[in-house]
Amino acid sequence: MNKRKIYLCFVLFICNAHLYAQKKLNPDSTVVTKHQTSINGQAMGYTAMMGTQPVWDEAGKAIASVSYTYYERDGIKDRSQRPLVISFNGGPGTPSVWMQIAYTGPALINIDDEGYPLQPYGTSSNPYSILDIADIVYINPVNTGYSRILEKETDKSQFFGTNADIKYLADWINTFVTRINRWPSPKYLIGESYGTTRVSGLALALQSTQWMYLNGVILVSPTDLGITRDGPVGMALSLPYYAATAWYHKALPTDLQQKDLLDILPEVEKFTVDQYLPALTWGGSLSVEKRQTIAKQIAHYTGLSEKTILQQNLSISTNFFWKELLRDRGFTLGRLDSRYLGRDKKDAGERPDYNAELTSWLHSFTPAINHYMRNVLNYKTDTKYYMFGPVHPWDRSNDHTGENLQLAMAQNPYLKVMLQSGYYDGACDYFNAKYNFWQMDSGGKFQDRFSIKGYRSGHMMYLRKEDLKQANDDLREFIQNSLPKQGQPAKYE
Question: Signal sequence: where (predicted)?
Fold first, then answer.
C-alpha cells in the first residue's frame, strides 16, 4: 500500500471516529445560550439551556438519556415565586417540538396565519410566549427528539407504556427540579394529546412518589384519560365535532350556516345527550318513525344525507365522516384538524388515504426544529431528531390517568385544571374532552377548579395566529389565578 492510500485510510478512520463520537449521545450534557426577545411589547433577555439528563436504574446505572430545553427569563432575583411550567407533547412517540416552537416558547415557527407551511423554513421570536410570567422546560421522553436508550439490551418495557412512562419521568423531573434549584417555585404541567395522559398520571405520581405538589395542570387536546366510552357513548360524542366541521366548510343548511358556530354547538350538544345517545342505546329496537326522525336531525347537524346516515345505522365513524363530507367536491378532511383538505386517488372508499394535516405539519416543523437546535441553541449532534420515534409496542393497560388526576386534585386543594381544545379536532374532540371532566368529577365537587377554553382551530389550535395569542393569554390568566394569595393555606374550609 502506497503512502497516499495509507493517508486516505487514516483520514477515513478519523472521520468515522468523529462521526461515531457525535452519534453516541452524551447522556448528561448542557449547552447554554443567551437571547433577547419581546413579549407583549416588553423587551427581555432569557437563557436557554439545552441538554440531556440520564434515566438511572435502581442500581444507579444510566440506562437512557432524556433531552430537554429549559428557558429561563433573565433578571429574576427570586425564583421562589416564579412559576415553572413542565411541558410534554404526545404521540406517545413525539417530542416537545410542537409546543416548543409553535405555542408557549420564545421561538415561533414560520407558517402563515392559519398554520400552513411557508418557505424559507425557520423560526422567529414569539411575541405571545408565556416566558414573561413563567420559566419553561420542554421534555422529550425516551426515543423522541434526541432522547435515546443507551444500550440495545435494555428492557424497553420500562419506558414504553402508560404507567412505565409516568414512573420514570416522575423520577426524572425530581432530578431536574433539584438541579435547577426550583423546589420552592409554583409548578405546572402542560401536556398535549397523549401528553395529557402523561401529565394527568404525573400529577398524582409526583405527589405520591416524589412529594412534589402542583398548582396547575393544563390539558391541550386531551385523550380519553382512561375513561371508558364504549358502545353508544363513544359513537354519540363525536356529533358536536361533526357539526363544527360542517359549519366551517359551509356544508350545513342555511338556518344553521347563517348562525355563529358558538350559537350552534350548545344546541347540538343538548341533542347529543338528550336524544342521539338514547336512540343509539335503543339500537335495533328503535321504531322506524323514531329512527327516521333522528336521522333527519343528524343530517341537519352534519351536512350528510339522511340516506347515508340510515345506511350507517345512525352511527357515523370519524373515518367515514372525513371521507364523506366533501366527497362531491373531491376533498377529504384532516383528522387532527378538519380545516385541512386532502386529495385521494379515488373519491370512493370509507376513509382518507392519508392525514392531510399531519403531512402539512411535518413539512414545516421538521426543517425548523433541526435548524433551530443546531444554529440558534448551538446544540451540535449527528443524532437524528425523532419527530416520531420508535416507541411501540406501547402498553396501554391499566390506564387510570383521569382518576389519578381527580385524586391528585382531591389531595391538593391548590391544584386547578384547565382544558384547551380546538373545535375542528377530530382525533381528540372538544366534546369528548368535556365528557372527561363530567366523569372525573361525577359528584360535582371540583367544578370550581376546572376551566374549559375552546378555539376555532384544530388539535394544535395555536397554529392559527388568532388562537395562538388567545391561548397564551388564557394560560397567563390560568397561571395567575391559580397562584394562592399570600398566606393562603392549602386546605378545605
Answer: 1-23
> 329 near 350, Cβ under 8 Å?
no
Alpha carbon 341 to its chain centroid, in Å, reads 21
Secondary structure (3-state) at 358: helix
The residue to which cell 443546531 is assigned: 374
Q: What are φ and ψ of residue 83, in 5° steps?
A: -60, 145
Q: What is the pTM (predicted TM-score) of this model?
A: 0.93
DSSP string, 395-431: B-TT--HHHHHHHHHHH-TT-EEEEEEETT-SSS-HH
Q: Which domains does the chain have, with CATH numbers?
A: 30-227+365-482 (3.40.50.1820), 232-357 (no CATH)
User: How do residues 205-246 score in pLDDT, each as one tens digit?
Assistant: 999 999 999 999 999 999 999 999 999 999 999 999 999 999
Do residues 218 and 429 lie in contact, with contact meaning Cβ atoms separated by under 8 Å?
A: no
The contacts of residue 145 (CB under 8 Å, 6+ apart) are 67, 95, 96, 97, 385, 386, 389
Quickly count: other Cβ atoms within 10 Å of residue 346's Cβ. 6
Counting beta carbons within 10 angstroms of the beta carbon of residue 13, is it exposed (0 to 12), middle (13 to 18) or buried (19 or more)? exposed
Amino acid in the structure at residue 15 = C
Q: Which residue has the cell 388567545?
A: 470
Residue 28's CB is within 10 A of a number of other CB atoms, namely: 11
d(Cα 197, Cα 397) in Å, to the nearest integer? 13
